[in-house]
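Milestone M4 deliverable, item 7.
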Amino acid sequence: MTERLDALEAEAARAFESAKDPGSLEEVRVRLLGRKSELTGILRGLKDLSPEERAVIGARANRLRESWESRYKEALSGLASSNDVSGSAPAALHDVTLPGRAIPRGHEHILSQVLREVREIFYGMGFSLAEGPQVEDDGHNFGALNMPKGHPARAATDTFYLRPDILLRTHTSSVQIRVMEKQEPPVRIICPGRVYRNEAVDATHHFEFHQVEGLYVDENVTLGDLKGTLDRFLKSFFGPETEMRFSPSYFPFVEPGAQVEIRCFFCGGKGCQVCGPLSGGWLEVLGAGMVHPNVFRAVKYDPERWTGFAFGAGIERLVMLRHGVPDIRLFYENDVRFLHQF
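Output delivered:
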């Protein structure tokens, strides 16, 4: 073992002498001091030697390691100083007119990009941003939204309960309630954020996802105002040729309620794998309706004076439709091959 250390010492001296640039010097460091180097292997094998051999070989190996580390730092410093533009290096080696090296930079996640885009669209229509807690109480998440005790939406099979009256919010509609409790009409807000549902994860469902919901309350707000607002949003998001329609639907916190659909822009309404053969060429994008009087009563608004509309859309669904993403799980797997596409 002593003879092998002698050979390594001689080999190291030759290697440091032959290293003329930072790249070759780094190769020498890895070969002599890296995790897979022979010296590292000798140090790891000390436990298998006798106490007498361990003391001699260990001391010699550690002296070599310290010597090589010092030699590497000296050589690296020498190379740096020899290439200093203020020293004796030829001026031709330093062309100050060349552009600098670009530093690799990341970018926003596609969901963050779309959330920002959606906010900007609604800001342009006079809506302001409202946010609220993700851990919510039963009253704000269900009770004030016309979902009394025993309502199917309250079931533990659909909701993550932390305590009997505390849960992870299932929608951002709870933010609308909190705003109306503190602010007199008129109210014009959007409420983007993360929500949670107790669902099995598959290509189109996830236990956490993002929503953006909107609320407009004032005197004489009509269904026509709702349709005009959503038409403007959908054309801004999907393109000016987007066709929209309302289909009757039920949501406990609006009356009447509607399912908002757009004509499939992949097939032009002929029917395809995206919109499905039975859809007639239409894609569901969000739910909406006129605020139910019981919701106004819960926040002490006079339903005889005030009217309003509300709507909500899943951000992941909007992205999947616009970009043809086939599986919602791709947004949460942090696969850079997927993320780099946006």
